[in-house]
């Protein structure tokens, strides 16, 4: 960072003493908002072009601005741009450098514009791009889940409720539950993007501008789908950032749930899966350890993204119209949310593609938990027993099997018949894990055929 020489670096003749040093540092945002630089340039170029088209900027000035901005872009990309905290933020840094480079024409750029509509535009352009990157990574994760699911439509594991063995499901079915969650996340992000993708520029400071600008033209040049239709609202509200962070929180919540399951499944008590070594770390004291650090950290970082959502909601709460400096605080939470999401999603897509599945341990766990008890009750109901009576008969059968230390399917027919005389030899078809899965063959069910159809539908919507 370069220090500005003039005591009046930031402000004009209106000020009678230099800005206090701490105030300068406290109010400056350039250390973080320089991240918006390329979008700031993009917005400025569209604005300048519109100004020249409506006759507010000479063609030669536009050409100079374009050349100057090209040079600034190069400086920024090669890390040679002379950022200065004295110039407060990314907008003033770029504008000042432009004027240094091209003179008079640089001073004309800010015609019919304010930093208030400028920053709102930059953040929207930046966020639109970030959403597109996130979408690509959610999509990659969904494909990784589909690829893994495809190999495991016949792999049987216990389905849990209350973390107690409930009914058998396929591992594919379990994975496809997450695939559905991430599909909804994508839909939410797409919907959010439509509201992000609107142009605030033209609102100027708050009331609009006296110049004959063409906002539609700027929107068109920047690829916005529409305009913010009230100038006060355009410079003031950050609901789009809050909405995005809410979508991001839901993505993290889903990742956190999956993380929790991976952590449980990787524990030797379950031993259902192994994560590839590159996603784990060891212990400095316990030589035998292999810890699932990546899912644990993703679970932990979920709290941080929720925190950003709360932070942004609170930032906006009770702000009077229109722009207030409070809004400068929207950037760091937004940046951190996007960084966290991009890393977590990238890691997860890779990690899910490299899981080793212990199908034997999964199957054994399903067998040990009386997972087909509901199937036996359904069997009795189909033979005319009222469901409540069937439930009670099976409960007694489970207790009996438990006392003998075996599965329901291991009980001889005569013993099973003690609990209900309608039981016949055909009962063993429903007491098997395979029979239990196959019987749930409807849309949304865990039968291999139903899950294969779900995978095919998801692939069709993803075009993958
Ligand atoms: N750095 C400011 C922000 O991020 C830019 C807008 C400043 N506008 C103002 N009137 N001080 O919000």
TrEMBL record:
Give the EC number.
4.3.2.1
In terms of Pfam families, this protein maps to:
ASL_C2, Lyase_1
What top-level branch of life does the organism fall under? Bacteria
InterPro entries noted in UniProt:
Arg_succ_lyase_C, Argininosuccinate_lyase, Fumarase/histidase_N, Fumarate_lyase_CS, Fumarate_lyase_fam, Fumarate_lyase_N, L-Aspartase-like
Primary site of residence: cytoplasm
Alphabetized PANTHER family for the sequence: ARGININOSUCCINATE LYASE (PTHR43814)
What NCBIfam families would the database entry show? argH (TIGR00838)
Return the protein name: Argininosuccinate lyase
Q: Which organism is it from?
A: Thiobacter aerophilum
